[in-house]
Each structure stands twice: as structure tokens, then as C-alpha cells.
Write a structure and sequence with these properties.
- The chain is of the alpha/beta class and 177 residues long.
- The protein has 3 helices and 9 strands.
- A 6-stranded mixed β-sheet has the order 4-3-2-5-6-7, with helices on both faces.
- The radius of gyration is 16 Å and the shape is globular.
- Bound molecules: 1-O-pyrophosphono-5-O-phosphono-alpha-D-ribofuranose and hypoxanthine.
- The site of 1-O-pyrophosphono-5-O-phosphono-alpha-D-ribofuranose has 17 residues, from strand 5 and helix 3.
Length: 177
Amino acid sequence: MSGDLPKIDVVLSEEDLMAKIDALADVLAPRLAGDWSAINILVGATPFTSDLMKALARRGIHPVLDALWLESYRDERESSGRVLVRADIVRSVRGRGVLIIDDVFDTGRTLAFARSHLMTKGAREVITVALARKPWAPKGEGDVDYHAFDAPGRFLVGYGMDDAGKYRGLPYIGALD
Ligand SMILES: O=P(O)(O)OC[C@H]1O[C@H](OP(=O)(O)OP(=O)(O)O)[C@H](O)[C@@H]1O
Ligand code: HPA
């Protein structure tokens, strides 16, 4: 039964997603030895954080998991241009390496804000990772450090990503018109 789903084109299947996360964990694991915190950018990055943490654990890497709830899109498909902190991290990151985990890197505002927020709290080093990177996302200094796949220039849903709160539970990444 498909319920009342709109037309969603699959851009990355569940199987391909898991393979990409494993490949990412292979690259990240050697960088994360020692005192690291992993910060889940709520809400959308939750499924990705969960699978990436498991992939890292299988490689013997166990960062301290925390969360930072940031909001800038609300129910719109375009960034409001402002990033709001809805809830802050709980554990100190002073002197620690910080891996910031997000689902999608689009205008880059959210990760730029998160990076500076955590550096201000005394992080020793910040690394950013996103599952999907949009084609127009910032390059150079403002780029995300690691991403799992290059997304098409379309609005994405699934695997944490929403359209006005819906479709976060889809096990694949899809695109809507
Ligand atoms: O690169 P940007 O243009 O900043 O977009 C990326 C951010 O947008 C979404 O967050 P949103 O504000 O929609 O909150 P959500 O995670 O609760 O969906 C997404 O989860 C990223 O955090
Ligand atoms: O393509 C997207 N889909 C869902 N949320 C988003 N936040 C930024 N870009 C997107």
C-alpha cells in the first residue's frame, strides 16, 4: 500500500545508502581516534547519525554522542536565511574534536552556524559531514568536509529529510517536484 505519497523519484536506494555510509566510515574512522564528540544536527540528521555511529562502532570508534537542534527551513522548501538554536548541546566540547553530522548540505548556512557555535564553545577541531551535497552548495573554505553523495539540484525527502515534517521515515532518499 503506498498511502497518499506524492510522486517521489528514488535518487539513492536503501542499499546504496548503506554502502555509501560504510565507505564514509572507512574514511572518517582513522581521523576520529582520541577524544571526539559526534553532534547530531536535529531533526533531519537523526537516521544518518544512527547508521554512521553504528558503522564507526564496527570500526572500533566510539565518539560521545550529543545533539544540537537547529532550525532554518521550518515548513518551507527554501532557507529562511536565519539559523535558530532550538536546543543546545548537553556535554562540553572544550578541548575535544567535534564531528558535526547533518543530512543535507544546501546553502551551507546550517553547518557554517554549527561550526562557529561549537568552536566558540572551545572545540579543539571541527569536522563536518553531510549525507547529501547539493550542486550549488558553497565550495572552498565554506564547503562541507565530507559528504556521502552528490545530490541532484532538487528538493530531497526521506532518510530524515522532510517536506513540512513529512516523509522523514522513508528508508531511501527521494526527490520531489
Ligand atoms: O545548508 P542549509 O541550507 O542550511 O540546509 C541544510 C539544513 O536544512 C535542514 O534543516 P531544517 O532547518 O529544515 O530542520 P530539520 O533538520 O528539522 O528538517 C537540514 O536538516 C539541514 O540541517
Ligand atoms: O532538499 C532538501 N530537503 C529537505 N530539507 C532540506 N533542507 C535543505 N535542503 C533540503
